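Regression test case RT-17, inverse folding.

Input:
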């Protein structure tokens, strides 16, 4: 019996632990594929947990299961709140060799050890969201704000 959130957390810990080596080697995507059951009496299914970190600073984790749709096996996203980039794609779709802006990111890092300009909005969004979540946790633990804030 498998809980997808357990493997989300596990993959996040692995990517965080080895982030320096992954960045140095240019690894931007890690995929974990599991054949599992969600409950003791359910059928087996294939679950995929995909971690992407193209900038080296913002780790995104998407969870999918493989579903049979019109005679072909496709990825179905089970994320909370957003749909991952593989949602609806056939599982036989080849992986992209390079992601959008990957060459520009590499050139920026090699020339001046800086970030690619178009990565700044993503980093700012991630930092602002983290600050708001920390603020909400601090306020709710001190009893100053309602849980719906």
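Golden output:
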């Amino acid at each position: 019996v498998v809980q997808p959130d357990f493997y989300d957390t596990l993959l996040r810990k692995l990517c965080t632990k080895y982030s320096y080596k992954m960045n140095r080697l240019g690894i931007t995507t890690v995929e974990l594929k599991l054949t599992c059951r969600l409950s003791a009496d359910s059928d087996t299914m294939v679950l995929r947990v995909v971690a992407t970190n193209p900038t080296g600073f913002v780790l995104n984790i998407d969870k999918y299961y493989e579903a049979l749709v019109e005679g072909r096996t496709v990825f179905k996203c089970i994320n909370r709140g957003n749909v991952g980039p593989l949602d609806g794609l056939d599982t036989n779709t080849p992986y992209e060799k390079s992601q959008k802006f990957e060459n520009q990111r590499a050139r920026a890092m090699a020339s001046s050890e800086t970030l690619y300009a178009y990565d700044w909005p993503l980093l700012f969004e991630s930092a602002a969201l983290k600050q708001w979540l920390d603020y909400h946790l601090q306020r709710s633990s001190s009893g100053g704000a309602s849980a719906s804030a």
